[in-house]
Write a structure and sequence with these properties.
Layout (H helix, E strand, L loop, with lengths): L1 E9 L7 E10 L2 E9 L8 H7 L3 H4 L5 H12 L3 E4 L2 H14 L8 E4 H8 L7 H7 L10 H16 L6 H8 L1 E2 L1 E2 L6 E2 L28 E5 L7 H10 L3 E2 L9 E4 L1 H6 L7 H11 L5 E4 H7 L1
Parallel strand pairs: 1-4, 4-5, 9-10, 9-11, 11-12
Antiparallel strand pairs: 1-2, 2-3, 5-7, 6-8
Helix pairs in contact: 5-7
Length: about 300
């Protein structure tokens, strides 16, 4: 999946006072192109905003306005989906500025890396720097639009890695819909009815206490073929196991998807698998199983 991570800095509290833009294009988890421009907002700067991003009026007085840069901004985005960390702010800036200058509206879909982190991780705070730290990543100049956009793209790739870098897997698991500029926000899909798995999911018979998974705590790394989180939880309950939404000290088995299993032992190894190895090194009797062996045992 290709997407464009985007970040704006503003001169004041108004969404259409953008004074810089950063964009970073990612393809299958890797950054392939970057864009950064200072922008003359033709509006006054508030001292509070200057303290955040360090951009002064003198820095942009000779820069182009947003409407003058819009053709190249629009060309860079193309048809790709947009992502931002706390997208509510950045999409508001983009839409308001387009409307202020009466420019042609774009209809790109978008999503929010902050919401992805909130749904899939268990952090006390989902701010950009916190999520970066979780993945062992750093940022040189926080609140520089270029660096923030790249950082957003990097954590988005990490968050989508279990879904083979495709947002569709997340949308299915959490019953979300992509946002669309000038149409609707990224959020729960209220028109999609959640399917409740039946007790006989995957035609699994009732298991005896002697079964390897009976009364065991089981977590998943990556997206298991043909199985979303809701189905996995129902299936494990049916067979007498406990579904773990994340890896804990109680976890007995970590079921690793085919794509994540292939990355084991490489620099692309997932954070969950890495954590499982650490627990094993600390003496925990945690077993890693590829998804094919998991279904065989079932």
């Amino acid at each position: 999946m290709d997407f464009v991570a985007i970040d704006f800095e503003t001169a004041n509290h108004r969404g259409d006072s953008v004074c810089s833009i950063g964009m970073s294009r990612f393809s299958n988890g890797l950054e392939v192109e970057r864009y950064y421009r200072l922008i003359n907002p033709v509006q006054p700067f508030h001292p509070g905003n200057i303290r955040i991003h360090g951009i002064y009026p003198r820095d942009v007085v000779n820069e182009k306005r947003f409407d003058q840069l819009y053709p190249e901004i629009r060309a860079f985005i193309g048809e790709d989906s947009l992502v931002a960390h706390f997208a509510q702010f950045d999409m508001k800036c983009l839409q308001m500025t387009i409307e202020t200058y009466n420019l042609p509206k774009i209809k790109n879909e978008y999503f929010c890396s902050c919401i992805l982190a909130k749904k899939t991780l268990t952090l006390s705070s989902n701010k950009l720097v916190n999520v970066l730290d979780y993945y062992g990543l750093t940022i040189e100049n926080h609140h520089n639009a270029a660096d923030d956009a790249t950082a957003c793209g990097e954590i988005t790739s990490k968050l989508l890695q279990p879904y083979d870098y495709d947002i569709k897997g997340f949308l299915t698991d959490y019953h979300y819909q992509l946002g669309q500029l000038f149409s609707h926000r990224f959020g729960p899909d209220k028109n999609k009815k959640k399917q409740v798995p039946q007790p006989n999911l995957l035609a699994i018979e009732s298991l005896q206490p002697s079964h390897p998974f009976y009364q065991k705590h089981i977590a998943f790394a990556g997206r298991i073929a043909g199985l979303n989180r809701q189905e996995a939880a129902q299936m494990l309950t049916t067979i007498g196991s406990f579904f773990e939404p994340s890896l804990t000290y109680q976890t007995d088995y970590l079921i690793v998807s085919k794509s994540e299993w292939q990355k084991m032992g490489t620099n692309l190894e997932g954070k969950l698998v890495e954590k499982a190895r650490q627990l094993q090194g600390q003496g925990h009797s945690l077993i890693l199983l590829p998804e094919t062996e998991f279904f065989t045992i079932l």
